[in-house]
Structures are given as structure tokens and as C-alpha cells.
Specification:
This protein is α/β, with parallel strands linked by helices. The chain folds into 2 domains: 15-121, de novo design (two linked rop proteins) (Up-down Bundle), CATH 1.20.1440; 127-263 and 308-384, Alpha/Beta hydrolase fold, catalytic domain (Rossmann fold). The protein has 14 helices and 8 strands. Residues 1-5 have low confidence and may be disordered.
């Protein structure tokens, strides 16, 4: 049976599922998902729209199917093919894990995702290194993707995640394009993100200049990186993290807020109010914010979030600054983009609004990620290459 819905909003009755499905579709340009496989899941989920557990079950079922094909290819020595299957399996497991509450079941799915991701990445990208970045107590997990088109000491981009994505995704949708253009990329799970949160128990912190400085020091010490040409970038919730780091770590040569934030607490006040009315109307599960922040409940999470603001901070940023926002962004209003842009102290600053006519109008250009990636890469190239 065919269910009518457009490409962006697969589940008109369930925005949380629609947004998560769109994020997964957005990985298609990088060979990390197959739209036909996603359609298998979407059609099954329409039949189970009122079953909360269906999301993880259906995504993991397809992930297992795809992983088996990857294992078969690997056993037969077809490693390029195996890498493709494993990348897709990793993305499907990670998508399924998204709606599972913190606990052993969530960790078990994540471990499968990480195993498949790395089996795919190491086969498909021989210029990728799995690295640890020295950090307080426990190192931060990361990938260093070296540009195949750079000689000597090249510029680099430090790339942090948002609230619910991971380094395995960002190294593909940003790192691969940057490598083609001559940039090295450190795709890193910072505190409250990906592997750092799940396997190293590192919750998010407001003073992201601490992991930001740790990441800078790691790349700047490498013989293949020019320490004077290191940019920092982060997306979605990272639109707070990257500017915060750039404000207090002046050695960064440029900063990109791929999806802006200024007062993250104010944004969450509106989201929480919407959650209380209808949890399906927002993109994030009820457990996500407390889990990321390492707090027991939403009340304590909201209290901790009060320090996540760029008020009195943004004006400290002096390096070139790019703020990207999409005209159909349903997670962050346009006023926040202008607030961040206006507050930044940089003389060289750009506010890019992606429209529906050009594409990339959704949150962080997830409807057309390549448009966003190209614009950002061009902007960085003009300043650091």
C-alpha cells in the first residue's frame, strides 16, 4: 500500500519520525544510505505508526539485512563493496538507536552502529585515521581525514556534532568534500555527543572552549596541519558550541555555525512547552536533553542549560565567521540567526540564508546537504586556502 507524503515529511502525523528520517535521507549523496532501503523502512513504519517500538525495530531489521551482505562481501574479499554495505548498516543502526531511551538496549544498538561505521569507513577511505584527542580524564574519539589533494602542511577544519548526530556522519557529509578541496578534517565527538557520551560517559558542558582548545592543540601539533589555518565548525546544537570555542580560543582562523544558536536555554523553553502539549510535534525525544547534559530530568536539564548562552561572549569572536540558516528551519527561528550574526565581533562575517528556491532550506540544509557543504567549503577556501 502506498502512503501519500512528500519527500521531506515522510510522516505527517509524526514530526519526530519525519525529521529523523530526513536526516537519514540526507546521507544519500555520500553513499552512506540507499533511498530504496529507506523506503522499505518508511512503508513498514506507516503500517505501525502508533507503535513506539516500531521505529528501532524496523531500522535495525534493515540494518541487520544490509550488514549481512557486507559480511558476505568481506568474507569473499570484496572489500570495497563490503565497505558500502557497512556504511549503510551503520547509518541505519544509528537511526534506529535515536528513539531508544538510554540504557543497555540503546548501547547495544550503538555498538553495532559504531562497528559497522568503522568497518565501512576504513575500507572506503584509506586516508582516514581513528584517533583519540587528549582531553580531561578521558580522550575524545575522532577521525582525522587527511586530504588527498594537499601537500605539506595543509589547512584543517575541526568539526563537532550537534545534539543527536555523530562524527561518523559529519566526516562524510563535510569531511569528504573538504578533503577533495585540500582541507584536512578532524571530525570529533565532543562532550555530550556520539561515542564520547555513549561509551566514555562525557556529558555536554557550556564551556565548549575546553574541548575546542583540546581539538585545536591536537591538529596544530600534527606535521600535516598548518596551525595558522585551522577553522572550527559545528552544526545544529553545535551552532552554540563552535562560536563559544572560537570566542575563547583565538588561534582558530575561522568559525562556522552550521545552524545558529545564541541563547540555547531560550530555544529549549519553547521546545519543552511544545513537548508538554504533543511530544511528536518536536524533533527530539523527551529523554534526549537530560541524557546529553548528564542530568536526571528535564527540570535539572533546563537549569543547567541556563549557562549555554553567547550573551557577553559572541563579541569576543574576531576570526572570520559564517552563520548558515535555512528559510524552512523548524528547529531554530530566523531571529536567532540574526542575533548571532549581529552579536559576533568579527569584521569579516557572513549570514547565509538558504531559500526554498535554491534548496537547503531545512534545518542545517538536511534536505540538500550538498548545497550547504559546497557553500561552506567555498567560504572556507576563500579565507584559508
Amino acid at each position: 500500500m502506498f502512503y501519500s507524503s512528500n519527500w521531506i515529511h515522510s510522516f505527517p502525523r509524526h514530526y519526530q519520525w519525519s525529521n529523523a528520517a530526513l536526516v537519514t535521507k540526507g546521507m544519500a549523496p555520500y553513499g552512506a544510505v540507499a533511498l530504496g532501503e529507506i523506503d522499505w523502512v518508511v512503508q513498514r513504519l506507516h503500517e505501525r505508526i502508533d507503535e513506539p517500538d516500531a521505529w528501532a525495530q524496523e531500522w535495525c531489521a534493515v540494518a541487520e539485512r544490509v550488514e549481512r551482505e557486507g559480511a558476505k562481501a568481506a568474507a569473499e574479499g570484496r572489500h570495497a563493496t563490503a565497505g558500502n554495505y557497512y556504511l549503510r548498516a551503520g547509518n541505519y543502526y544509528y537511526t534506529g538507536e535515536r528513539m531508544v531511551a538510554p540504557g543497555e538496549a540503546k548501547l547495544a544498538i550503538y555498538r553495532k552502529a559504531l562497528r559497522c561505521y568503522q568497518a565501512g569507513l576504513t575500507r572506503r577511505y584509506p586516508n582516514l585515521e581513528i584517533v583519540d584527542v587528549p582531553y580531561e580524564g578521558s580522550p575524545l574519539p575522532a577521525y582525522f581525514l587527511k586530504s588527498q589533494n594537499a601537500g605539506g602542511r595543509a589547512p584543517a577544519v575541526v568539526l563537532f556534532d550537534g545534539l543527536d548526530n555523530c562524527k561518523e556522519m559529519s566526516v562524510l557529509f563535510a569531511g569528504v568534500e573538504l578533503a577533495f578541496r585540500g582541507f584536512n578534517t578532524l571530525a570529533i565527538d565532543g562532550p555530550g555527543q556520539g561515542e564520547a557520551l555513549r561509551l566514555r560517559n562525557l556529558p555536554a558542558r557550556y564551556d565548549y572552549e575546553v574541548p575546542g582548545t583540546a581539538a585545536y592543540q591536537y591538529v596544530a601539533a600534527r606535521a600535516d596541519v598548518d596551525p595558522k589555518r585551522v577553522a572550527i565548525m559545528a552544526y545544529s546544537a553545535g551552532g552554540y558550541y563552535a562560536p563559544r570555542a572560537a570566542a575563547f580560543e583565538p588561534r582558530y582562523a575561522a568559525c562556522v555555525a552550521w545552524g545558529p544558536h545564541f541563547d540555547y536555554h531560550a530555544v529549549w523553553e519553547k521546545r519543552w512547552a511544545a513537548m508538554k502539549q504533543d511530544e511528536n510535534s518536536v524533533a527530539t525525544s523527551h529523554f534526549q536533553l537530560p541524557w546529553v547534559l548528564g542530568t536526571p530530568d528535564m527540570d535539572s536539564a533546563m537549569e543547567k542549560l541556563k549557562r549555554f548562552t553567547l550573551a557577553g561572549v559572541a563579541q569576543r569572536i574576531t576570526c572570520p565567521m559564517l552563520v548558515c540558516w535555512g528559510a524552512e528551519d523548524k528547529l531554530t527561528p530566523r531571529s536567532v540567526a540574526h542575533q548571532l550574526y549581529d552579536g559576533v565581533g568579527s569584521k569579516d562575517k557572513t549570514l547565509k540564508i538558504f531559500t526554498t528556491e535554491e534548496g537547503g532550506a531545512e534545518h542545517c540544509q538536511v534536505d540538500n546537504r550538498q548545497v550547504g557543504t559546497d557553500y561552506i567549503a567555498d567560504w572556507l577556501a576563500a579565507r584559508l586556502l
